[in-house]
Amino acid sequence: xxxxxxxxxxxxxxxxxxxxxxxxxxxxxxxxxxxxxxxxxxxxxxxxxxxxxxxxxxxxxxxxxxxxxxxxxxxxxxxxxxxxxxxxxxxxxxxxxxxxxxxxxxxxxxxxxxxxxxxxxxxxxxxxxxxxxxxxxxxxxxxxxxxxxxxxxxxxxxxxxxxxxxxxxxxxxxxxxxxxxxxxxxxxxxxxxxxxxxxxxxxxxxxxxxxxxxxxxxxxxxxxxxxxxxxxxxxxxxxxxxxxxxxxxxxxxxxxxxxxxxxxxxxxxxxxxxxxxxxxxxxxxxxxxxxxxxxxxxxxxxxxxxxxxxxxxxxxxxxxxxxxxxxxxxxxxxxxxxx
Length: 339
What we know:
single chain; alpha+beta; Aminopeptidase; SH3 type barrels; five-stranded antiparallel β-sheet; 7 helices
């Protein structure tokens, strides 16, 4: 992801406190159309989305009401997950020799919380268990990866399947800052189905999950199995944390300018592939790497739209996902048929 050349300069010149003060200038988030007619037209093609949750109550953020952020330390106290998530209690995370993912996550997450608090943000350090319908201005789950004996290196970040515009801004701002601060490469093609379907995002399934209008992301800070990555996430957790906290603070500045509509995740109607052997790509670019080819008639569920492209998952095979041109999709002929 491309970084803004000015981000590092601004943060270096002003420090976290001043950046946060600018982000926390008293604002009211209101509902009004986002993006104008062009954006509205983009959202209508090929299938018009609908709001997946009600608009949040307007919030005032300023000196007397600081920003509120949740930082989850992945796998920490996972054996204490509530009964509705009992199947996940044994998932203690990756390990490399004496280093456990849970311990590495905790070192970084604790520092992110402290850095945010030093900048005037109200920040919670959360274990694996998320408070019911956790409502905050941002939620970031911190994890580390296990390459399974490979020499794979790099970080990656993802939003929920049903992402709001605010969640995508949180992802992009955090990615930009983390890349600049840490210097680690991005594991560009490594975002997995499990990251997008992370249990803490699953407000439709679990009570113990973030509220639907809480901007959310999950970051894999690096690979425990990579010597290069361990130099950061194990030996220099303060710098890894700074990359995340700076990204969150940059996002809070963006959030102060977003309408409340941008906090609402969208749900898209089912579609199907209209053109035989359509390319499903990793990213919405014509020259981007192809994940697979889909035959005409394949049923898919869109999750996002951008500049003539639709991000989708294959129906009943949700581990296959990617981007396809809108021109290669259609509303199924049976979609409007009477029951």
